[in-house]
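INTERNAL AUDIT FORM
Audit reference: QA-55
Scope: verify that the stored structure record matches its stored sequence.
Auditor: D.O.
Record contents follow.
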Amino acid sequence: MKYFGTDGIRRIANTELTPELVYKVAKAGAYVLAKHSGSAPTILIGRDTRISGTLIESAMTAGFLSYGANVKSIGVIPTPGVAYLTKKLKADASVVISASHNTYEFNGIKYFSNKGMKIPDSIEEEIEEILDSGKIEELTAQSNKIGVSEIREDLLDEYLYFFRKNFEDTFEKFNKDNFSVAIDTANGATSVIAEKVFTVLGIKHYIINNTPNGININNNCGSTHLDMLKKFVIANKCDLGIAYDGDGDRCLAIDEKGNLINGDIILAIVSKYLKEKNKLKNNTIVATVMSNLGLRKFCKDNDINFKETKVGDRYVLEEMLNNDYIIGGEQSGHIIFLDYNPTGDGILTSLMLLMVAFEKNKKISELANIIKIYPQVLINAKVSSEKKDTFNENDEINKKIEELEKEFLENGRVLIRASGTEPLVRVMIEGENQEYITKKAQELANFIEEKLK
């Protein structure tokens, strides 16, 4: 697609993601949504803390209103909060203005359906068709058909209530007196709500990177830069460190010793807990091809089915919906608990991890011991754009890949795939020895580069 990627439209704000383009994307979106719902749609808009957020929101709102759609502007709120409210308020759709874990100069547009899920590719394609058809100029509401917008920042309290409703009674039963959590909100969307959630649930906490100024979102903080949180956890003798990303749909953690607890480990901890409670529906977890070999072995050892999808949370969700599974996610900490919300939710993920720790009365490092994470290396081979999707048609490359797969058959894994967005072929190897797999991955990447210049 020309505009939409795997996670909406994402570009540098105001130069590539211009107000003019945003206005048109909103107008085309309102038209397509109205066509499918049969009436003038009501659309929620939420955003993260980046400086361009209000600019993009203003253009988006103008586009919606000029077609006749009505807008409720929620202000700064995590992406999963918007997804939850879309369902709860029975809105026709919603938009999140965010570039997730990217630096502040980027921004993006993600559409969600009335079910609180990212809109399907087919709807994105329809929006693109309208954008490029010239029809956009005709889509103008007249007289009393012009849409109206209202500021509804009070709706953030509804999202806070979602956590109270699901966790308050449970957490009241636990002895939490000697447990403290450090929370890194990445100067992003969770900065407006994380502290409220942990306060209302009675969990002792410190909060860092919680003073957004429009340009410090994800800047050496949050789930993509964990060093500050690691140091803080150790210096303050915290039992757990939690890091969210800019729009709050991911969560990574740090145990009391300063070790990383990634999405694969969280999936293992929570799925084992759910299985013991007879709550792991269809005895399955869903993860992507990038998930660690350790997660696959954990599933085998614990008699849990492992379902694999392409990279991207939308594919994880698709698999979950199609086959009635309730837990799935990615290494990055984007984890979906379908019983609660149809999108990844960083705060929810951290509360699920805490619930297991409190109920089992175990340290986070002990909980993480149930899974062995294999060393993993990912090296990008730079190739020409035209050739990146043809690597598996080259006999010499295939021969090299087969040799490696044979070598790592027992205790390792080899995965080669083309990047969805860049002229790269990604070479990933897992094995026992970091130094050795790095050497092997580099050799193969060099070979691919040579053959696909």
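Auditor finding: record pair retrieved intact. Residues 19-37 form the longest helix (19 residues).
Action required: none
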